[in-house]
Amino acid sequence: MKLIEEAIRRGAKTLSEYESKQFLSEYGLIITNEEVVATEEEAVAAALKIGYPVALKASGEEFSHKTELDLIALDIRNEKDIRAAFRNLTSRTEALVKEILVQQMVKGYRELVVGLTRDPQFGPCVMFGLGGIFTEILEDVAFRVAPLSRWDAMDMMNDIRAKKILDTFRGKPPVDRESLSDILITLGRIGMDIDEIKEIDVNPLKIVDGKPVIVDALVVLNNESL
What we know:
The mean pLDDT is about 95. The two termini are about 15 Å apart. This protein has two domains: about 1-30 and about 110-225, 2-Layer Sandwich (D-amino Acid Aminotransferase, Chain A, domain 1), CATH 3.30.470.20; about 35-105, Dna Ligase, domain 1 (2-Layer Sandwich). The chain is globular, with a radius of gyration of 18 Å. Helix 3 (about 40-50) packs across helix 4 and helix 6 (about 150-155) packs across helix 7 (about 175-195). It is α+β, with helices and mostly antiparallel strands. Strands 5, 6, 7, 8, 9 and 10 form a six-stranded antiparallel beta sheet that branches. A four-stranded antiparallel beta sheet has the order 1-4-2-3, covered by helices on one side. The chain is built from seven helices and ten strands.
């Protein structure tokens, strides 16, 4: 709750991507290995510590649409490219970038989306579906009212049209449904416990060796609490 309280105190409407993932990590969810840096030298050091390849992203609560603003550099594999990407991202005239997120580059063919929203009638609801670039195109998602039981979470996985993506896929192991259901149950618990959170959007949730890993996340705060 400390991250939420501090964000509300400063009048923020969202947490940054880094803060959002740190918050979810406090609830036991698996996130990418990452670090926020302010200088080029710090970026180089962070990449060495995390291990190549890495991604660089503009960091801050004002950058909730980094892809649309072209504020992401992916699959960086050496110091020279780290320095070039850092300089490029921090020299934009259309966006004042003060911090950079250096993030582990997670490779996974399967991308899912999970989230939390507050319905005016039903209250906190958990969402699950096909993620990545297909989220808005295919709209293949399922919803359940929080709190979720284990049965609810498992049942959601069978509700989407692309449910076979959770099975053995292109030689990759099936998704660990227990771990995935833990994420859905936890999101429901957050919705029940913390009224100050309006929405949570995790997209993509990538599958690595059958395990779900949170690659990008956004926590939206309840405006009525600000």
